[in-house]
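INFO batch 0412 | record 1 of 1 | parsing
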Amino acid sequence: MKMTRVVLTLILVAALSLSLPGATSLAQEVLTNDSVIQMVKAGLPEAVVIAKIKSTSSKFDLKTDSLVSLKKAGVSDKVLEAMVAAGSGAAPSTAAAAPAPPAPALAAGALKTQDVIYQLVGGKFVELFATSANLETNMAFFQSKSEVVLEGKKSQYRTSEKQPVFLSTYSSTDAPLVRLKPGDDHNDRNLKIGSGAFMPFGGTQKMGVRNEDKIPVTIERDPRGFYKVTPSAALAPGEYGFILATGFGAGSGKIYDFGVD
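INFO prediction complete | emitting tokens
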């Protein structure tokens, strides 16, 4: 009888220990939109937030309205890009993953109508996010050279289409399509945008996108007022972007960048 009591006691202790919170394994953390906003408002550095997104399981709401709300809450462009790259519900992996599109595909009826560029993919439109870029000027021996510089040798947004079709609110004059050159010594991409020579009593200075860097395109005006932009010839693998040509007067601007694989 005593042995029976001992056995019953052990069973009860085991059952109670399994029901206690401390005895269960902690649930895996899953990041959400609110988690990101919380980190941003707490003042965590951008690099820390991005590293957390890359290393933690996530379940982000990536609908257009949600992305707009995140932007209004102070989430930076780079953090938004990291969220979109992480996808929705994707577990972190050490294996190299193909970069995700920067935004969910939209039906035509949900398109924005200002300051936006989409790629047409499978009958739907995928929004390109603008990347911030700096204007750097080097001067030596009475000569100067200005370049637009973007961080990273490759764009996060990749496409395998050699003649991708874009829908843009910008004309080809306001946002020409250009090829970007990966940096030789730094982790960046560059576009020469100005050069000049000067002497003690005068000189010349040229500013603007060079014709040799522009990609020829065919343009059709969409009934909704968009510009339908298609490269005139197949694009070689490399880095490209639509540069807002008038946006670098203050030393910085934006490029809607993408890469062709």
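INFO post-check: The chain is about 20% helix and 35% strand.
INFO record closed
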